[in-house]
Automatic annotation (TrEMBL):
Listed InterPro entries: Dipeptidyl-peptase3, Peptidase_M49
PANTHER family from the UniProt entry: DIPEPTIDYL PEPTIDASE 3 (PTHR23422:SF11), DIPEPTIDYL PEPTIDASE III-RELATED (PTHR23422)
Lineage: superkingdom: Eukaryota
Phylogenetic placement of the source organism: Eukaryota, Metazoa, Chordata, Craniata, Vertebrata
EC numbers: 3.4.14.4
Reaction catalysis annotation: Release of an N-terminal dipeptide from a peptide comprising four or more residues, with broad specificity. Also acts on dipeptidyl 2-naphthylamides
Name used for this protein in its record: Dipeptidyl peptidase 3
Cofactor(s) needed by this chain: Zn(2+)
Length: 730
């Protein structure tokens, strides 16, 4: 069997999202709006298969065919007859559920490949003897021949997502290097084009000269469209001695389905902001225009406090090895009014709390743009995974001048982060009950601060295309050097494009640090309803959770490549290092032996030193993070961040050795089963599923009842069209 790093265990936790009450409270019009937005999100989410690995679309199509012909219970009888044990069949169900849940065969959290935990020849017998294979023998056999080997392969380059020799990616053709990615980013910046909805394909001519195709995601391809601002961009360019060609039409048939559903949703919009928002999203996906998506995002920001909240597009850049290209995601959710009221109080206090952050006023936005901040019960979250909270849009220019929205996903928090005592690792026994009692409430506080005042704080010093600065060059002083500002963002440059590979993790670290720092403020604890001993317990567990998370993060470090595979976890490790460096016994990490005789470890946090030792250390670190970010000082930012992110075996912690202990005792991330909506006559029904691997599979089988075979054909045709592009470096 495969290394446990690369399988999903049979006893993996599976939870169902509960949004029944929030959905029940919607009007019939709101339900229709939510239904069509959900359909758009689910269709768009299929693009993630094409953004993950060469084989993912074929694996999805194969699983889809299998479970459409036989549901998990029916297929089980066939599998047992073919000689599989119950455990082996369960392992296959868990694998299939994992592919659906991650929208591919790489974990969304950690970017590690996972493979079926049963013999390949046994799975082959099940597939080729299945009802689906009897109905369509050539198609099923063809899919298995294409993806069977890759499904199980753990060749070193295929174990993780990455660029060139470091891993597999479909954001870049297999012959691209980090140097190609940097050149392409410089080209995009020079043309004021965003990388968010692009992929990069490289060809090398007989003369050895490279040429690059920058392909935009859109419904339209080469068709002329004189009204589009994109038309002038679709041409060939010479840039720094290389040939670039900008094309469009990536994921076209998938985005066509997204657009059709958004058009239907528009008829049920609650106001003109939502109508104009959807119109611009439609324009963006049709034309391949990020500028249109920005316009839609402006209307989205202005749509304050909607009953049905949503966002859709190429959003987060965590999985692009260069850190600039966005993975498709779409969510639809309903407001949880009780928790949202607490967040409204936090927003009302935000301007005062921002003054508590440890950087000079010149490094804060000129005006705090009061955002929407709501707690939502998720109906649909399509993409590779479901976060606990979101702060969007990610466009720097909008965030600096027009604002953003924060959402906390309440029903996700309720199930994804619940902890069983017997599975609670690396804590002292006396901390465990306290941790279980207060982890949920403390996480609500941390998510609120992280999203609103972490991602929502800080100014970027910019020079626009006309040469004008958004800061006073004469009077603004860098508090780290005592000198005037020496660096800034020039026109076309963004946080992601400048800081590239560390941008996501660095920003997550800054936001997490703001949460830890401000949770010490009595006003914050009061807003969330905590005072006295309870307030102190919330602070302690919040800090303890971060310290423990920093140790757990080692699972997502790859020693062979000296690289991190998950932005949030790298950020938490960095914070652990900062707090360990503070000294005076604030934090200790000690290797031990468990009651089972195997290696173990314990993290300890001295609660009496959080304010006296921890706060000053975090204050110094936070100030440096913000100053380097504000000034666009990439060299300084990398030196600071990569220094703390380095994993070595230096004593006393010996983190490389501790990583083996973390892997030995790791718990797999839960799978989340989401409901479906179905239109019956003029009414929308909510369909819920059991919290199991089989239930998750059924939810996907019923998600595309009308056009499942068509979608499988679309995915395999799109994958085949680019199949020759993924050959790795020689």
């Amino acid at each position: 069997m495969a290394d446990t790093q690369y399988i999903l265990p049979n006893d993996i936790g599976v939870s169902s999202l509960d949004c029944r009450e929030a959905f029940r409270l919607l009007s019939s019009t709101e339900r229709l709006y939510a239904h069509y937005l959900s359909r758009a999100a689910w269709y768009g989410g299929l693009a993630v298969l094409l953004q993950t690995s060469p084989e993912a679309p074929y694996i999805y199509a194969l699983l889809s065919r299998l479970f459409r012909a036989q549901d998990p219970d029916q297929l089980r009888q066939h599998a047992l007859a073919e000689g599989l044990t119950e455990e082996e069949y369960q392992a296959f169900l868990v694998y299939a559920a994992g592919v659906y849940s991650n929208m591919g065969n790489y974990k969304s959290f950690g970017d590690t490949k996972f493979v079926p935990n049963l013999p390949k020849e046994k799975l082959e017998r099940v597939i080729l003897g299945s009802e689906a294979a009897q109905q369509h023998p050539e198609e099923v056999r063809g899919l298995w021949q294409i993806c069977g080997e890759l499904m199980f392969s753990l060749e070193s380059r295929l174990r993780h997502l990455g660029l060139g020799k470091e891993g597999i990616t479909t954001y870049f053709s297999g012959n691209c290097t980090m140097e190609d990615a940097k050149l392409a980013q410089d080209f995009l910046d020079s043309q004021n084009l965003s990388a968010y909805n692009t992929r990069l394909f490289k060809e090398v001519g007989q003369d050895g000269k490279p040429s690059y195709e920058v392909r935009l995601a859109s419904v339209l391809g080469t068709e002329p469209n004189l009204d589009s601002e994109m038309t002038s961009k679709l041409k060939s360019y010479e840039f720094q001695g290389s040939h670039f060609r900008v094309t469009r039409g990536d994921y076209a048939p998938i985005l066509q389905k997204v657009v059709e559903q958004l058009e239907k949703a528009k008829a049920y919009a609650a106001n003109s902001h939502q109508e104009q928002m959807l119109a611009q999203y439609i324009e963006s996906f049709t034309q391949g225009s990020i500028e249109a998506h920005k316009k839609g995002s402006r209307f989205w920001i202005q749509d304050k406090g909607p009953i049905v909240e949503s966002y859709i597009g190429f959003i987060e850049s965590y999985r692009d090895p260069f850190g600039s290209r966005g993975e498709f995601e779409g969510f639809v959710a309903m407001v949880n009014k009780a928790m949202s009221a607490k967040f409204e109080w936090l927003v009302a206090s935000a301007e005062q709390l921002l003054k508590e952050l440890p950087w000079p006023p010149a490094f804060e936005k000129d005006k705090f743009l009061t955002p929407d901040f709501t707690s939502l019960d998720v109906l649909t979250f399509a993409g590779s995974g479901i976060p606990a909270g979101i702060n969007i849009p990610n466009y720097d220019d909008l965030r600096q001048t027009e604002g953003f929205k924060n959402v906390s996903l309440g029903n996700v928090l309720a199930v994804a982060y619940a902890t069983q005592r017997e599975k609670l690792t690396f804590l002292e026994e006396e901390d465990k009950d306290l941790y279980i009692r207060w982890k949920g409430p403390s996480f609500d506080v941390q998510v609120g601060l992280h999203e609103l005042l972490g991602h929502g704080s800080g100014k970027l010093f910019m020079q626009d295309e006309k040469g004008a600065f958004n800061f006073d060059q004469e009077t603004v002083i860098n508090p780290e050097t005592g000198e005037q500002i020496q660096s800034w963002y020039r026109s076309g440059e963004t946080w992601d494009s400048k800081f590239s590979t560390i941008a996501s993790s660095y920003e997550e670290c800054r936001a997490e640090s703001v949460g830890l720092y401000l949770c010490l403020h009595p006003r914050v604890l009061e807003i969330f309803g905590f005072e006295g001993a309870d307030a102190e317990d919330v602070v302690y567990v919040n800090w303890l959770n971060m310290v423990r998370a920093g140790l757990l993060a080692l699972e997502f470090y790859t020693p062979e490549a000296s690289s991190w595979r998950q932005a949030h976890m790298q950020a938490r490790f960095v914070i652990l290092r900062v707090l360990l460096e503070a000294g005076e016994g604030l934090v200790t990490v000690t290797p031990t032996t468990g009651s089972d005789g195997r290696p173990d470890a314990r993290v300890r946090l001295d609660r009496d030193k959080i304010r006296t030792v921890g706060k000053p250390a975090l204050e110094r670190f936070l100030r440096r993070l913000q100053v380097l970010k504000s000034t666009g000082d990439v060299a300084g930012g990398r030196a600071l961040y990569e220094g703390y992110a380095a994993v070595t075996d230096a004593p006393p912690e010996c983190f490389l050795s501790l990583r083996d202990t973390v892997l030995l005792r790791k718990e797999a991330r839960k799978l989340i089963v989401q409901p479906n909506t179905r239109l019956e006559g003029s009414e929308v029904q909510l369909l819920e599923y059991e919290a199991s691997a089989a239930g998750l599979i059924r939810s996907f089988s019923e998600r595309f009842l009308e056009d499942g075979p068509e979608l499988e054909k679309i995915l395999t045709q799109l994958a085949t069209a680019d199949a020759q592009c993924w050959k790795g470096p020689q």
